[in-house]
TrEMBL record:
Residues 10-462 form the Major facilitator superfamily (MFS) profile domain. PROSITE patterns: MFS (PS50850). InterPro entries: MFS_dom, MFS_sugar_transport-like, MFS_trans_sf, MFS_Trehalose_Transporter. Pfam families: Sugar_tr. This is Facilitated trehalose transporter Tret1-like isoform X2. GO terms for cellular component: plasma membrane. GO terms for molecular function: transmembrane transporter activity. The chain crosses the membrane at residues 12-34, 58-80, 87-106, 112-133, 145-163, 169-190, 278-301, 313-336, 343-365, 377-395, 407-427, 439-458.
């Protein structure tokens, strides 16, 4: 509801439910962090495996998680509408259980590689988590809650690094397996998304779900109005309805009660101009923010740190980076509903551009001390994850109408996997052509392009319900409208 105040009890229930759902991205962090402290042992003669891993096997171990994520992402849109948000989220926890189960007992290297690839299938479930959270969260706190899907990943990454240096190989695998099982069990206690329940014609259950998350009676006016809004958002004529504000208000006041028509997500998308424009905006923001160079620094940070701070242990470097990512994403969660998506994306894109330029010039011209390289990487990591890394996922979760929300989130996540792959593929050829430093000038320019698009063309969606967001994409002047609180 636009401008709605959240009761403390509702905030608690929605917050705890969000942490439970975002737990899935923590499992993704576990599977991504695990190879970083096991690869050395896998390649040594003292490996716990039946034989040391070859260089090719090591490369596959580090890359097949991304392949699994890309392959499973298109299924997310189908799963959230076929099985519901709750059971789709539980289903995406299963690959992690299977993965860690295999790792716990396997000693044959190809089987370990297969297990990690299976974990990648579960990583695709972030799209499901985002949809689920956005549909149980009230509009005024939706940004903060949906951003936890990013923070959750960093929590898992940091936890994996932390226990990796303390526990034995098998004990780490057992802990990760137990955490994966616990995720699936916890989710059984949550209510299904009210949006999905209305989609399948279960209005009574939808009212009970809203009552559970809002902490109000199922027969209250608040629940009644919210159900009316959700049904309105599912009408294929939504674009035409929204162009007349008086009609929209009248339909809500008269308790709009048209049963949502069953229509494929693609057909709905082709009919909805606002959804098409939202899709373009989301894919553009996701692509540009990934091309800002963060994935390159994550992959190549260790050799840069070895040069800048030779005395720093590689594991400590990884832990400190994970802490930086986590602190920035937590701060973003507190700020995103206060300052809005557009200002946060614009400012952090400019800050990331500055850091990339400084880092590029340092690598290119060697004008400063070695420690400046490390300091710039940490500064960039904090600034980027304070806004530019999080905003695309928040936008993806909130700008789509219910009928295409699953499809929109799937396409956005697929875009993320593809752009990560493209960035890493073109990085080394660009370094050979331009040199390492100048490549970061390119990343800096991309950051400025992202800031320009965000400032001048990206609509502000802070605190708005889905139907109000569609109006911003239907009207050219929508990007200039201010959200009045």
């Amino acid at each position: 509801m636009n401008g709605d105040r959240v009761r403390p009890s509702a905030f608690l229930v929605q917050g705890l439910s969000t942490f439970a759902i975002a737990y899935l991205t923590s499992l993704t962090g576990l599977i991504y962090g695990w190879p970083s402290y096991t690869l050395e042992m896998f390649q040594s003669n003292g490996t716990v495996l039946s034989a040391p891993m070859s260089s090719m096997e090591v490369s596959l171990l580090g890359s097949l998680t991304n392949v699994g994520g890309l392959l499973a992402t298109p299924f997310c849109g189908y799963a959230v509408n076929k099985f519901g948000r709750k059971y789709a989220a539980i289903m995406y926890g299963l690959p992690f259980v299977i993965s860690w189960g295999i790792i716990s007992v396997a000693r044959w290297p190809p089987l370990i590689i297969l297990a990690v690839a299976l974990g990648g299938l579960g990583a695709a479930g972030q799209a499901v988590s985002s949809v689920y959270i956005s549909e149980i969260a009230q509009d005024s706190i939706r940004g903060a809650l949906t951003s936890t899907t990013v923070s959750g990943y960093f929590v898992g990454l940091l936890f994996s690094y932390a226990i990796g240096g303390q526990l034995s190989y098998h004990h780490v695998a057992y802990v990760h397996l137990a955490m994966s099982v616990m995720y699936m069990v916890i989710l059984t206690f949550l209510k299904e998304s009210p949006v999905y329940l209305i989609q399948i014609g279960k209005d009574k259950e939808a009212a009970e779900s809203l009552a559970f998350y809002r902490r109000v009676p199922a027969t209250s006016k608040e629940v009644e109005v919210e159900i009316t809004k959700i049904k309105l958002q599912m009408d294929p004529r939504i674009d035409k309805i929204l162009q007349d504000p008086n009609t929209t208000k009248e339909l809500i006041e008269k308790q709009y009660d048209q049963t949502p028509r069953s229509e494929s997500q693609w057909k709905f998308l082709m009919k909805s101009e606002s959804s098409q424009r939202a899709m373009v905006a989301v894919l553009l923001v996701m692509s540009v923010t990934i091309l800002m160079g963060s994935i390159v620094l994550q992959v190549y940070a260790e050799p840069l740190f070895k040069e800048a701070v030779p005395t720093m242990q590689p594991n400590l470097c990884s832990v400190l980076l994970a802490v930086t990512y986590l602190l920035a994403s937590f701060l973003c969660a507190f700020m995103i509903d206060k300052f809005g998506r557009r200002p946060l994306l614009t400012v952090t894109s400019v800050g990331s551009a500055l850091c990339n330029f400084v880092l590029g010039s340092q690598l290119h011209l060697r004008w400063g001390p070695h420690w400046l390289t490390a300091a710039t990487i940490y500064a960039y990591s904090f600034i980027y994850n304070f806004g530019a890394a999080v905003v695309p996922f928040v936008l993806t979760a909130e700008v789509f109408l219910p009928e295409v929300r699953g499809l929109g989130n799937s396409m956005s996540m697929a875009c993320m996997w593809i752009m990560n792959f493209v960035t890493l593929i073109i990085f080394n050829p660009l370094v050979d052509w331009l040199g390492l430093g100048p490549v970061f000038y390119v990343f800096s320019g991309t950051c400025l392009l992202g800031a320009t698009y965000s400032h001048f063309w990206l609509p502000e969606t802070k605190g708005l319900p889905a139907d109000a967001i569609q109006k911003l994409f239907l009207k050219k002047e929508g990007r200039d409208k201010k959200v009045v609180k």
